[in-house]
Structure formats: structure tokens, C-alpha cells
Design a protein that fits this description.
heterodimer; A: mainly alpha; 2 domains; B: 289 residues; mainly alpha; MetI-like fold
Chain lengths: 315, 289
């Protein structure tokens, strides 16, 4: 296990370096002088020249990359053009919203996805199963922003039950009650992902049901519900646990659309707005952080998977 | 197509869709969408770009089946032309993903040294979440139909490459490939005449899912203002433009949204039917669905 973890961790380093190179080159791929691009349309030629020298843009590209990487490793992601503040602090401002949104979304996914998937598998082939499977596929086919807009129309505009946009921090007035601002967004973000989890729970339960140990459990006369919970569900959870990890990692970027629909002050909306504002240092910083997070979460998922199912690390 | 081939074609179709009424309905819907796309100019009652300030935000009725938008443009006509964009985006992304990803995967599995490098590149691209990769690429490129297709195609090329890499690797060690090599077949011949025909079915399944996901990705990009140019009547753009009017004109949200959902759902159903017909493990798993 320890050997496996070390190997996976070491394999991560070259991929991370290559990904960081891509993120670095991104500013160079945008047509135009990188310094002018970074400073935006309002910059004077003197400012462009000053930044060119400061960033060492007259140096060879590989030196520039090393210089940039050195800064990044020291926590310096540059300065936002729009805010005039360090990129890292701009991103940190959106972190609370995005993290809470992701956590609440995961809660929805678990309470919707797992029970429906289990029922679907245990009632395999019946109309309940057909309805659940068909419904799951339908939900996976819905554009998230469309669902979000409809939820706003129903629950905010017509019924007036929930706020339609924004999110005041839970440390502000209202405290934990402010989480109600995230109810609709988290459900929106959860819907297509819960649909995938339903299908996955169902498929992996059906897979495990065919295994020998389940047949043995049945043969020795164990009650069907005990077989389902103790023998099938527990083993099916291994594959599902991995999927939860991947989903969580994917949520970081999928939140881009949801945060835009509900005007949430999170990292996802920051990406879109920075793209529209051409605030390149922020785009670069956010992407780098999301990619690192995405890779680390995926690694943790793989390790958890190997821990749950020792057969994996032996391969 | 010879009569014999046509008969065979129908027989295969029947085998795949037999007893799957929902998937058959999905296929019928997709045929309708294709027909709408092809014959759009003959179907539409109005020019999709024609602005009519007097008729702005008209409710659905006899004159405008799906109502009008904030410029008084006919939503029905725009929806029909939107089918064209849906097909262009779907097919275009499939072609790019299968060509780039498929070739990368096959070549990587066949030429192992080059493959080791190419698959590392794929790994790095896959370190970027799909939507984020699309956003980054669209920032570098300008908004156009061509670029949107390219970007979505590239995003799905990575997964396609991984899948085909694995399959080619397995096929490569089959006896019939050794036989082909012994009988003097060159690399190109082995790859395209002996390996590729065995990959057609999984490629078709992959294509159907890429087609479906491409619709959702394109709609999301349109919504964020980073997809097709705003003047193009796509379902995603129609939704994106109408969102500030939804309380006054909910039909603007209903029709293009329903069209996207129906098309993606149908394509997923067809894709599932195709996959089940290839992978007998899932066969008769859920009848009807």
C-alpha cells in the first residue's frame, strides 16, 4: 500500500509540471504581446515596457517559465488587473462559497443517488427500476443552467420560498441560515451528477449480485435484506466511493455554470468574469489551483480505492 | 447500397431496437431533428433573423407557434434553424474527437515508444476538467462555429484516445494480427484494415455519447457567452439571450430547453441501446429503457 501510494505520488509530479507549463503558456498563446495582454487595454506603452522587464519577458521562454514557477511555489500568483489585488487573495475570497456549494451538492447527491440506486437494483427489472433508470438518464440530459433558471422561476419568483441569487457569508448576519441561498444552486448542480450516481450504484450492485460470495450467502439461507445490505451494498460501495471522489473533483469546474446562473460570489463565477474581463493573471491562477486540486483529489480517490479494495494496488 | 445490404442494415437495426420502445422513440425524434435541420428553409414560417419590434415578446399562438423573443423574432423558426446548429456541433465534435482521439489512441497502442509520449500528453490534458479545458481554449480562440466544434471535439478526444488505446492494445496481441503481419501486411494495413474494423462498434457507441454531451457543453458555453457567436440561432444562444425575460416570457425558456433535453435524452437512449447490443453483459437489463 505504502509503495503504491509513493509510486502514484511520484507519477503525479511530471503531469503536474506539464500542466503548469500549459497554464503558463496560455498567456503566450493569446495573440499579442504577453505584457500588453496581462496589463489590459488601458496600459500605456511605458507600463507595458516596465512589466516586460519586470517579468523578464525579454528572457528565453524556459527561463520565464522557471521564474514564474518559482513565484508560484512561493505562493505568488501575480496581481489581478481588475482588482489590483494579489490573485491568491482574490481566489481566497471566493473559496467559502465554492467549498460550501460543493459540500452541499455532495449531500444532495448522496441522499438522492444512493437510495434510488439501491432500490433500482434490488427491484431490478420492475417498473420501479425502469422509472428510476429512465428518470436518471433524463436528468443527466438536462442543461444545468436551464434547470437552475426553472428552479428560480418556481421557488423564488412564483412561490417566493428561497432567494434567487447571491450568497452572504455564514459569518455575516443570519449565520448558518444563509445556507438557504445555496439550496437551489446545490440541487441544480447535484441533479445531473446524482443521475450518474444512481446509474453507477445500480450497475455496481448488479455486478456484485452476480459474484460467488453472494450466491453462497443466499444459499446458506440468509435473509434477502441482509444479503442486500451486508454482502452486496458494502462491496458495491467500493466502486461508488471512487465515483464520489471523481464527482467532487468535477464539481469544481461544473460549478462555473451554476454559480453564474445564481450570481454566487464563488470561484467558478470568478473564472467566467475574469475571462470576460480579460483578467489573465486571475484566469491563470484559478486554473492552476483547480487543476492541482483536481489531480490531488483524483489521487486521494485512487488511494482510497486501493485501501478499500486491496486487489487494486497489487496490479 | 445494394438491396441485400439494405436488408441486412434493417435487420441489424431491428435487433438493436427490438423491445426498446423508448430508444425507438428516441431514434424517431433524432430523425425528426435531422429532417428539420435539412429542410429548415422550407419549414420555417419566418426568417429566423427577421426583427419585428411590434411583435416583441408575443405569447405562443397561431401566428407564432413558440411565441417571439425580445426582438420580435419568431422562436419556432429560430428553433428549427437551431436544429441545424445542433447537428453541426454534434457531428463536428464527433468527427474531431474520433479523428484526433481515435488516431492518437490507435497509434499510441501500436507504436509503443511514440505511444508512451502521446498518452502522457493525453494524461496532462485530462488533468484539466472538461468544461475548464473548453473555457481555456475558447479564451484563446475567437467565438465561431468552427472553433466551438474544435474545442468540444478536442475535449472529448482525450477520453476517446484512452478508450481506443486500451482496445487496440488488446487487439494487437490477437492471433489474426500475427497472421496479417506474417502474410506481409504493413503497419498501415494492419492498423486500418485489420484493427480498425474491429473497433467500429465501440467507436459508434462512443460517437453517440460524444454527440449527446457535445450538445450540453455547447449550450453551457453559449450560456456563459463563450460559445457560438451571439447572432447564430442555436438553442443554447436562445436560452442565454432570453434569461432576463423569463419572468415575462417563460416560453423563451421552455421551447429551446425542451429541444435540447429531448435531443440529448434521445441520443443517450440510442447510445445505450447500441452499447447493450455490443456488450451482452447489459443485455435485457432493463427492458423498454
Amino acid at each position: 500500500m505504502l509503495g503504491y501510494a509513493t509510486r502514484r505520488l511520484l507519477a503525479l509530479i511530471p503531469t503536474l509540471l506539464a500542466a503548469s507549463l500549459l497554464v503558463f503558456l496560455f498567456v503566450h498563446l493569446i495573440p499579442g504581446d504577453p505584457a500588453a495582454v496581462l496589463l489590459g487595454d488601458t496600459a500605456t506603452p511605458e507600463e507595458v515596457e516596465a512589466l516586460t522587464r519586470e517579468m523578464g519577458l525579454d528572457a528565453p521562454v524556459y527561463l520565464q517559465y522557471l521564474y514564474w514557477l518559482g513565484n508560484v511555489l512561493q505562493g505568488d500568483l501575480g496581481t489581478s488587473i481588475f482588482f489590483g489585488a494579489p490573485v491568491l487573495s482574490v481566489i481566497a475570497d471566493g473559496a467559502e462559497t465554492s467549498i460550501l456549494l460543493a459540500v452541499m451538492t455532495m449531500v444532495w447527491i448522496v441522499i438522492l443517488g444512493v437510495p434510488i440506486g439501491v432500490v433500482s437494483a434490488t427491484r431490478h427489472g420492475t417498473w420501479v427500476d425502469q422509472l428510476a433508470s429512465g428518470g436518471a438518464m433524463l436528468f443527466a440530459s438536462v442543461p444545468t443552467f436551464w434547470l437552475g433558471l426553472y428552479l428560480i422561476l418556481i421557488f423564488s419568483v412564483s412561490l417566493g420560498w428561497l432567494p434567487s441569487s447571491g450568497y452572504p457569508s455564514i459569518s455575516d448576519d443570519g449565520g448558518l441560515a444563509n445556507l438557504r441561498y445555496l439550496l437551489l444552486p446545490s440541487f441544480t448542480l447535484a441533479a445531473p451528477n446524482a443521475a450518474l450516481i444512481i446509474r453507477l450504484v445500480r450497475a455496481s450492485m448488479l455486478d456484485v449480485q452476480r459474484e460467488d460470495h453472494v450466491r453462497t450467502a443466499r444459499a446458506k439461507g440468509l435473509a434477502p435484506w441482509k444479503v442486500a445490505t451486508k454482502h452486496v451494498f458494502r462491496n458495491a460501495l467500493i466502486a461508488v466511493a471512487a465515483a464520489f471522489g471523481f464527482t467532487f473533483a468535477a464539481l469544481i469546474s461544473e460549478a462555473v455554470v451554476t454559480e453564474t446562473v445564481f450570481s454566487l460570489p464563488g470561484i467558478g463565477r470568478l473564472v467566467v468574469q475574469s475571462i470576460l474581463r480579460r483578467d489573465y493573471p486571475v484566469i491563470q491562477g484559478v486554473i492552476l489551483i483547480i487543476v492541482v486540486l483536481y489531480m490531488v483529489i483524483n489521487l486521494l480517490v485512487d488511494l482510497a480505492y486501493a485501501w478499500l479494495d486491496p486487489r487494486v494496488s497489487l496490479k | 447500397m445494394t438491396p441485400n445490404a439494405t436488408v441486412q442494415w434493417f435487420a441489424t437495426g431491428r435487433r438493436i431496437f427490438r423491445g426498446r420502445w423508448l430508444a425507438t422513440l428516441g431514434l424517431a425524434w433524432l430523425v425528426l431533428v435531422v429532417l428539420a435541420a435539412v429542410f429548415a428553409p422550407l419549414i420555417v414560417p419566418y426568417d429566423p433573423l427577421e426583427i419585428d419590434p411590434v411583435a416583441r415578446l408575443t405569447e405562443p399562438g397561431a401566428a407564432h407557434f413558440f411565441g417571439t423573443d425580445h426582438f420580435g423574432r419568431d422562436t419556432f423558426s429560430r428553433s428549427i434553424y437551431g436544429a441545424r446548429m445542433a447537428i453541426v456541433i454534434g457531428l463536428g465534435s464527433v468527427v474531431v474527437a474520433l479523428l484526433v482521439g481515435g488516431l492518437t489512441g490507435m497509434i499510441s497502442a501500436y507504436f509503443t515508444r511514440l505511444g508512451a509520449f502521446l498518452m502522457r500528453v493525453v494524461d496532462v490534458l485530462m488533468a484539466f476538467p472538461a468544461l475548464l479545458l473548453a473555457l481555456v481554449l475558447m479564451t484563446i480562440l475567437e467565438r465561431s462555429v468552427m472553433n466551438t466544434v474544435l474545442v468540444i471535439g478536442i475535449v472529448y478526444a482525450t477520453t476517446t484516445a484512452r478508450i481506443l488505446f486500451g482496445m487496440t492494445l488488446k487487439l494487437k496481441n490477437e492471433v489474426f494480427i500475427d497472421a496479417a503481419v506474417c502474410s506481409g501486411a504493413g503497419h498501415a494495413s494492419v492498423l486500418f484494415r485489420h484493427i480498425l474494423p474491429n473497433l467500429i462498434s465501440p467507436l459508434l457507441v462512443q460517437a453517440s455519447f460524444i454527440f449527446a454531451f457535445a450538445q450540453l457543453q455547447a449550450a453551457a458555453l453559449d450560456f456563459l457567452g463563450l460559445g457560438l457567436p451571439p447572432e447564430v440561432p442555436s438553442w443554447g444562444n436562445m436560452l442565454s439571450e432570453s434569461r432576463i425575460y423569463v419572468t415575462r416570457a417563460p416560453w423563451l425558456l421552455l421551447f429551446p430547453g425542451a429541444l435540447i433535453i429531448l435531443s440529448v435524452f434521445s441520443m443517450n437512449l440510442v447510445g445505450d441501446a447500441l452499447r447493450d447490443s455490443i456488450d451482452p453483459r447489459f443485455k435485457n437489463d432493463i427492458k423498454g429503457v
